[in-house]
Write a structure and sequence with these properties.
Elements: E1 2-3, E2 11-18, E3 35-41, E4 47-53, E5 68-72, E6 80-81, E7 106-117, E8 123-135, E9 144-152, E10 159-167, E11 170-177, H1 188-191, H2 213-223, H3 225-231
Antiparallel strand pairs: 1-2, 1-11, 2-3, 3-4, 4-5, 5-6, 7-8, 8-9, 9-10, 10-11
Helix pairs in contact: 2-3
């Protein structure tokens, strides 16, 4: 569960999975059903599924492996997808929510341990704090977003309790997590089902399939602030 991405006080459900991408499906060790995905679910208010598969299905919904960004029940629309084509959505660039090593577009610093709180004001003692400054490539002034990750590592799992973010053009904010659960490898195949777009997002559903671009900006500013920040909205 999380809050801080959407409207003030609104608590939603998140699911996230980032599996290795492979270019050749028949290559040894490459799982064609592996995916990179993120789900934000605010129930009847709005739901967003962002998913990119190692291998897509040619037809939908044979196995529901269709890459795209889907908005479900936002402004009461059954579903629409981000992109320009009415035939199929544009595969997204799913952000990898790991603490990035220093690189061309990232600067990472360990800030030590701090006491903090997570969702519902639950106390967290001695959280490790990592600061990641993420430069946005292609922006005129090389805009940067700063993320401070507050994590603990019980039983060698990495649990995220809070992410603080701000930037030159981004109002500061905090994402608070509760009941953060690490999915262990034996359960990942079943967990992938969380990221399959529903049948209402298929190409044979009547009505407009491509989301109205101004609405996409509006929904992201309202419900998915991190995505809006990355897009410069």
């Amino acid at each position: 569960m999380s809050t801080g991405d959407g409207e003030p006080g609104l608590i939603g459900f998140e699911a996230y999975l980032y599996e290795p991408e492979c270019k050749q499906i028949n290559k040894t060790g490459c799982d064609e059903k592996a995916l990179q995905g993120h789900v934000w679910d605010y129930g009847p208010a709005c739901k967003k599924i962002e998913v990119k598969y190692n291998h897509e299905d040619g037809a939908y919904p044979k196995d529901a492996r269709w890459s795209g960004t889907f908005y479900i029940k936002c402004d009461l629309l059954d579903c629409c997808w981000d992109g320009e084509s009415e035939v199929r959505p544009t595969p997204p660039d799913v952000k990898q929510w790991d603490i990035d090593p220093p690189g061309k577009f990232d600067n990472t610093t360990y800030l030590g341990t701090q006491n903090t709180t997570e969702l519902y004001d639950n106390p967290v003692i001695d959280a490790d704090v990592w600061r990641n400054v993420d430069l946005i490539p292609g922006t005129e002034h090389r805009l940067a977003i700063r993320y401070d990750y507050f994590i603990t590592k019980p039983d060698r799992d990495v649990i995220t309790h809070r992410i603080h973010y701000d930037g030159a053009d981004v109002p500061p904010g905090d994402i608070l997590y509760g009941n953060f659960t690490v999915i262990q490898p034996p359960a990942i195949v079943a967990f992938r089902e969380m990221f399959h777009p529903p049948a209402a997002c298929g190409p044979n559903i009547p009505g407009p399939r491509v989301c109205d671009p101004p609405k996409v900006k509006e929904w992201n500013r309202k419900y998915f602030k991190r995505a809006a920040a990355r897009a410069g909205w």
